[in-house]
Amino acid sequence: MNSDDSQFRYFDPDEPVGNMSGNLPHWRQTGTTYFVTFRLGDSIPQAKLEQWEREREEWLAAHSEPHNARLREEFYVLFTERFQKWLDAGYGSCVLAQPGIKAMVEGALRFFDGARYTLGESIVMPNHVHVLVAPMAEYDVSGVLRSWKSFTSHEMNRKLGRAGTNWQKESFDHIVRSARQRQRIESYIRNNPKMGRKE
User: Fold this and answer.
1) Fold topology of 5-43+92-192
2) Residues 6+ apart with CB under 8 A from 77
């Protein structure tokens, strides 16, 4: 795992920002560092998910695109941060807590570190994964995530003797804006195991 600040680039307000389609906003800027969270499909209770989706739709209806930096940050606090807290409560099957599965996912995250991306702080929690990652020039964060999720889902099914989808289709990703913000995220990731309590 690399923690050298020179390995990471941050949001540049003078460079274009893209927004991929999906239920969640996925802002993209070439060459930047992302804080990514991906989760198991059963990691959020349905009632909480429906509440979150309803409130998110209302916010998006009231704030038409393009969103400026202030609105992107507001969205992050109201929706992404709250969702992270629900994940930390430890709902669902939590199969990532099984030592063999946890080690397999950790190995998948590290496998192309230095070749396709720079891997920053990361942690595999019982029902979700947090990663700081900076894709290299010819790769993008969506492709990196697809690779991680495809390989690990196949391996989970093999180890558990089952079939089907393990990961929620969409992931949370947030462009890191500065070295200071990266340091705060690193601290959050390192301290994540202390945060798990059901509401």
Assistant:
1) Alpha-Beta Plaits (3.30.70)
2) none
